[in-house]
Amino acid sequence: FVEQGYLPEALRNFLGLLGYSQPDGTEVFTFEEMSRDFDWARLNTVGPVFDLDKLGWLNGHYVRELAPGDLADRLEPFLRDAGLYTGTADQRALLDGAVPLVQTRMAVLSECVDLLRCLFVAEEEFAVEPAAREKALGADAAPVLAACADALEPLGEWTTESVQSAMDAALIEGLGLKRGKAYAHVRTAVTGSGIAPPLPESMALLGKEKVLRRLRAAAAAQP
Predict the structure, then answer these.
(1) Element spanning 161, H or E
(2) Could you write out the three-class secondary structure of 29-97?
(3) Deepest of 20, 92, 94, 149, by most Cβ within 10 A of its Cβ?
(4) Are 57 and 6 contacting, i.e. CB atoms less than 8 angstroms apart?
(5) Which of 133, 157, 146, 140 is nearest to 208 (CA)?
(6) Residue 38 contacts by C-beta under 8 Å, 6 or more apart in sequence?
(7) pLDDT, tens digit (0-9, with 9 covering 90-100), for 102-123
(8) What is the pTM of this model?
(9) Alpha-carbon distance 166 to 79, whole Å?
(10) How far apart are CA 7 and CA 112, in angstroms?
(11) d(CA 155, CA 107)
């Protein structure tokens, strides 16, 4: 459970629900609250079910309740084990910026590896996943990626707002595309995956140089 990224407090809460219930029927409670209100008469010894879906729901709740800095501390070991993180000041700043983007998207902490890989992978090791490439980077993607890169290159201020504004002007207003379709091409080229934090925010964290390099490379690779 530790290796998968279940929080101790979530697992204690879950185990407390096996064959027991709080007097007020609440399902989310701390060990201290259970100890305070414990009543032997509320024990049910008939067939408790170890429901992993329920545990996942509880764990997601506890993940969302963590302070951002605490969550970042807990994510570091998973990123280290994946070879993505060494703990430099720049990496920690990037992680702190990324936490609000993924905190509501994880049921277990180990999911941070796939969600954040695009931000921490060494640029020489970055590659688009084959399944994502096949789905979103067909022949129609090249002009979209080129137009996006052309729109982003002149930006002096590199923020979530400026990136999204430039993309929308070029792809939605300029090419007449729906945002979902346009962003799917860009998301795959920039993150290498269909699983990633919100796109403009991810691009802002990645930085202009990496985003342009990935967009140009993906456009050039199209047939």
Answers:
(1) helix 160-167
(2) CCHHHHHHHCCHHHCCCCCCCCCHHHHHHHHHHHHHHCCHHHHHHHHHHHHHHCCCCCCCHHHHHHHHH
(3) 149
(4) no
(5) 157
(6) none
(7) 999 999 999 999 999 999 999 9
(8) 0.88
(9) 32
(10) 14
(11) 36
Ranges 19-28, 109-118, 191-200, most confident: 109-118
Q: Please state, for a pLDDT cut of 70, what percent of the chain lies above it.
A: 100
Six-digit token string for 76: 């570091």
Interval 185-205 mean pLDDT = 94
How far is the C-alpha of 204 from the C-alpha of 198, rounded, in Å?
10
Quick one: pLDDT at residue 41? 84
Are residues 95 and 72 in contact, defined by beta-carbon separation less than 8 angstroms?
yes
Which residues are within 8 A (CB) of 194 and not within 5 positions of it... i.e. 6 or more apart?
129, 131, 132, 135, 136, 184, 187, 188
Give the residue carrying structure tokens 């429901």.
Answer: 51
Exposed, middle or buried: residue 78 (CB in 10 Å: 0-12, 13-18, 19+)? buried
Mean per-residue pLDDT over the chain, rounded:
94
Residue 11 has pLDDT above 80, yes or no: yes
Flag whether pLDDT at 222 surpasses 80: no
- Residue 100 in tokens: 């609000």
Positive or negative torsion for Cα 111, 115, 116, 118: positive
At residue 221, the 3 state secondary structure works out as coil
